[in-house]
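Posted in: Protein Modeling Q&A

I'm a second-year student putting together a small comparison for a lab meeting, and my supervisor asked me to include a predicted structure for FtsX-like permease family protein. I've never done this before, so apologies if this is the wrong subforum. The sequence is pasted below exactly as I got it from our records. If anyone can share the structure token output, I'd also love a short note on what stands out.
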Amino acid sequence: MIVFRLIGESFRFAFDALRQNKLRTMLSLLAITIGIFTIITVFSAVDTFRGKLQSSVDKLGSNTIFIQKWPWSFGDNYPWWKYMNRPQPSLRDFEILRARMENAQGITFEISTGDRTIKYRSSSVEGITVTAASQDFDKTWNFELQSGRYFTESESSNGAPVLLMGADISEGLFGSEDPVGKQVQILGRRLTVIGVFKKEGEDMFGSTLDKNVNVPVNFAKGILDIQNERYGPQITVRGNDNVSLEEIESELQGLMRSIHRIRPGQEDDFALNKTTIISNQLDSMFTMVNIAGWIIGGFSILVGGFSIANIMFVSVKERTNIIGIQKSLGAKNYFILLQFIFESISLCILGGLLGLILVYLMALAIGAATGFSIILGLNNIILGIGISIIIGTISGFWPAYSASRLDPVEAIRS
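Accepted answer (user: helix_wrangler)
Welcome! Here is the predicted structure, written out as tokens:
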């Protein structure tokens, strides 16, 4: 009960100081407010970006490996000419992998070509991406259909003139009308629409199926040179859920070296790319941003700590005779000490809450102006209040200690 009474009195003293010396107190709290605002803004922005980027990475699949010519990450001094001379992943590689791979739930050969136009009667949509993929595309990528169906095994193997289209393309060509069963023109051919992807919007990497058309790869190879590098041929492998990514990668590497007849000791002539490469790069980047946030906000909080210590020394000076009366009535040193420490903490919490309110208002303003919402999470709120308590304790200790050591007689006479 004594502790709660102390806390209550300390809050009362803090608010009395704020009411009686508004300008002085607000100027002292300003640095704490700016410091908490800076740190929590950086952390909230980082958490929001990290969450959105991670969800974009997760769309690729945490257990998925992409066999490509170029790696996603290079060393400091990489010999680019070695990568230039590598072969593109081929249909032959894909066929052998599909026959030999044991720990895969789906294997797909894919190419894509952008900036294409699709037409239906007098309507057309420009700037779309055409992706040609083998049958297991629905197993290696995460997507949903809002209408229609996926390719059958027969349609994929025979290269039937059928396609799946994105929601934006469907709206642009057909409006509210159901496009399934209708014929459209693309790549100089007439194809039948059998399904429409569910609208999903762009992720942080700018990729989306909303403006994408998907056709069987066996249909595309009669029109395009699917081994041409400009179409970015790749083989996508999604492993079984009960098998680790490292085991899938090891099996893939062994099979690809066997297919390409690479002797022991020779370097691989292919890249096995995975989402952990992106995740590790994102973690390194966000770690540096967090450190920068701590440094920038830390200077403001340091200045704020000195300001709080200064105002507490002034408060002790102003209430010296009250301290003398309290001690003469039997108040212990720890009572005086805790009273002023709690008052310092109260002031810092007030400054921290003002900083958090500013972060929240800024997040609302950015969300209203740009549509990108920054999330002020509970962990960052707790962090902001925690920093305020720590700074209040450190800044208020020496003034509180000096108050607790005052001689009661001298204090009353002051």
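A couple of things worth pointing out for your meeting: Residues 87-269 form one domain. The beta strands are 64-68, 104-120, 123-133, 145-148, 162-165, 183-186, 189-197, 212-216, 234-239, 271-274.
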